[in-house]
Amino acid sequence: MTTTPAEYLLQLKAQLVISPVVATFIFIEERIWPERGYIRIRMTLANGDFLEVAEYFVLRAGEHVTRRYRYQWMDGACQVLRKRWDNVEHHPDLPNFPHHVHVGSSEDVKPSEKLSIMELLNVLPDEMLTQVN
How is the chain split into domains, by residue range? Predict the structure, then answer.
């Protein structure tokens, strides 16, 4: 249970430090209000790839709820899109709308599940294993 947005961000920072897939990270933007927050982080992954995450969240009854998100994973040169998970409402025909993932290009869009940054850090090791360079 998270009691404040600041506490959630502290938990996230701790997770970034211990994550085996994150080599380096820098906070680009961090905003905290009494019941909500916004975070934007750029990371270099252990394999040299680039990941930028942005998440707007709220707290409901002490629980973190991701409202809007965009997590863009690219090759190390930032030229090739690996995947981009987001919930922008521009693919209403997909199952589980608005949650979707762009795979390899902005045009190849597949349904996805809602993700928080913490959940992304948990699934990224498996995603990286299946990634072909």
Answer: 5-128
